[in-house]
Amino acid sequence: MAIQLDNVGKRFTDGNSDRWVLENLSFSIAEAESVAVIGPSGCGKTTLLNLLSGQLAIDAGTVQVCFPGKAAFRLNEVNAKDLLHYRRSDIGFVYQFFNLIPTLTLKENVLLPVELTKRKHLREQALSRIATLGLNDRIDAFPEELSGGEQQRAAIARALAHEPHIIFADEPTGNLDADNSKIVADLLWQEVTKSNATLVVATHSDAILRRANRVIDL
Amino acid sequence: MRDLRRHWLVTLCVVASLALAAMGITVVHIASVETVRNLESTGIRTSYQYVVPIATNEEKHYFELRRDWRSGALPTIEAMVPILEGTTEAEGRLVQVLGIDVLADTSGSFDDSLSSQDTGFLTQNTLIAIGSDWTVGDVVNGSTVIASTPSRYNLFIADLPTAQGLLGRPGQIDAVWMRRKEAEKFSFVERIWPGLLTGLGYRAPPLEVEGYQIQSMSSWNPLHSFSGSIAFNLSLLGALAILVSGFIAYEACSNNVRRRRLEMDRLGALGVDQWQLRGTFLIEALLIGAIGSLLGIGIAIAFLQLLQLVDVSDSFNVVLIASFKSVAVSIGTLLFAIHLATSKSNNRIRKSIYGLLVAICLGLLLWGAFPVSGLLGAFVVMVGMCILQVLIVVPAFVGLVSRIGLAVSLTRLTWLMVLRQAIKQFRSFRVPVSAFSIAIATAIGISLMVTSFRTNFEDMLDVRLRPGLHIESASEFDTSVASEWEAVENLRSYYRTVGRLAKGPVNLTATNLDAWETSRYGYDSAIERGTMINRQLAMQHNLKIGDALNIELPHNRQLTVTVVHVFNSYGSNEGRAIVDVGAIDTAGWTRDRVTINPIAGREAELQQRIASTSSNAIVSDNSERRTAALRVFDQTFVLTNAIALVAVIIAVVGLLSAALAMYGAQKQEFKLLRTVGIGDRTLVVSTLLQSGLFGFLACVIALPLGISIAWVLCEMVNPRAFQWTIDLHLDPWVVLRPTLLAFGAAVAACLIPFLLQRKHP
Question: Which of A7, A70, A94, B423 could in theory staple to A169 by disulfide, Cβ–Cβ 3.0 to 4.6 A?
Answer without folding.
Answer: A94
